[in-house]
Write a structure and sequence with these properties.
Blueprint: E1 4-10, H1 14-25, E2 32-37, H2 43-50, E3 55-59, H3 65-75, E4 80-85, E5 88-89, H4 94-104, E6 108-116, E7 122-123, E8 126-127, H5 132-139, H6 141-153, H7 155-158, E9 171-172, E10 175-176, E11 180-184, H8 185-190, H9 203-213, E12 217-228, H10 238-256, H11 259-286, H12 290-309, H13 312-321
Parallel strand pairs: 1-2, 1-4, 2-3, 6-12
Antiparallel strand pairs: 4-11, 5-12, 6-7, 6-11, 8-10, 9-12
Helix pairs in contact: 1-2, 5-6, 5-11, 10-11, 10-12, 11-12
Length: about 325
């Protein structure tokens, strides 16, 4: 078996990180590195006290997931690296199974295992590269309801769609969720790793897109299942992260799609945000619960911020005069 290291990126998820590292060290990896993005919850002190054999790098500020992952992967020497979110937990035998899979598939640059929620239910982890239609269908409530109905009563349809297929056999895919990524260092280093301009979200899709364009393959395999709590750090700043998801979507289109596709995506996202704005504002009028009112106010704020950020004037100026800069 080829040696495999483990790299973990953490931000204010101390208790999840403890569970993650306990499962990691039970697998006896060749190297373990933790990069902490300026946590304030005692994560650093916990790692120092309870996992002294881990290599710990502490950033003074939160530099984002992709940039921190680059730091972690640059620290290790192994040919393979298992990159983990801090809110994940490995099953026994995970490292051996994933390393063996990479050994058997020399064109695979990234391998994602099966993911499960804390209660054991399947967590979707394979996705198509984004399109305006796909983004609309995944965010429009009416389309979501129709999609759920079709998948419930026509399960055969769901087997052909990456977001809904049963994740029960190995296959090549467009991209896999970055919560648990088995990485071939040769391929990762050849394309320069993660693009650090993605602070959060779509850095995994961007990495897989560039690897595929370079002739590598992205694989999913159910040889092991990792538990992923999901959103342990992003829930702490829900409104900010919602806006970050939207801006990262646009950034992906700027990097990899035509001007026309980018224009259509901007229109779709602005329409979705305006719809959310109107819907949340209407519900706010009839809602008295303080907690629900706070969530609705955050949704309105996020919609307003994105609508200002993706204004038509700013968009067209960025598109035609500085295509490869961020909007």
């Amino acid at each position: 078996m080829t040696s495999i290291a483990v790299a973990v990126v953490n931000y204010n998820t101390r208790d999840h990180l403890r569970t993650c590292l306990s499962s990691v060290f039970a697998e006896r990896p060749t190297e373990v590195v933790v990069v902490d993005n300026a946590s304030l919850d005692g994560s650093v002190e916990m790692v120092q006290a309870e996992f002294p054999s881990a290599t710990l790098r502490v950033n003074k500020t939160n530099i984002g997931y992709g940039a921190a992952a680059n730091q972690a992967i640059a620290t290790v020497k192994s040919a393979y690296v298992l990159l983990l979110n801090a809110d994940t937990r490995l099953q026994p035998g995970a490292l051996e199974a994933l390393s063996a899979y990479l050994d058997q598939h020399p064109r695979a640059a990234i391998v994602g295992p099966r993911l499960a929620e804390s209660d054991g239910t399947l967590q979707a982890s394979c996705y198509p590269f984004p399109t305006p239609l796909d983004t609309f269908l995944e965010n429009c409530k009416a389309a979501i309801i129709v999609g759920r109905t079709v998948r419930r009563y026509c399960p055969t349809v769901g087997r052909f769609y990456l977001r809904t297929w049963p994740h029960n056999f190995a296959r090549t895919v467009s991209w896999v969720k970055g919560a648990v990524l088995t990485i071939r260092r040769e391929a990762f280093d050849a394309i320069g790793g993660f693009d650090p301009s993605y602070f959060m979200y779509f850095e995994d899709a961007d990495l897989c897109y560039r690897l595929t364009a370079s002739g590598w393959e992205i694989h999913f395999t159910p040889v092991t299942t990792a538990v992923h709590s999901g959103g342990a750090s992003t829930r702490q700043r829900h409104a900010v992260m919602s806006l970050q998801l939207l801006t990262s979507t646009v950034r992906f289109y700027q990097r990899h799609c035509s001007t026309f596709q980018l224009a259509i995506m901007i229109v779709v996202l602005r329409w979705l945000m305006l719809s959310r704005w109107a819907g949340a504002a209407t519900r706010l009028v009839f809602t008295r619960d303080p907690g629900k009112r706070s969530l609705l106010a955050q949704e309105i704020s996020t919609s307003q911020q994105f609508s200002r950020w993706a204004s038509p004037l700013r968009f067209w100026r960025a598109t035609f005069y500085s295509r490869h800069r961020t909007l």
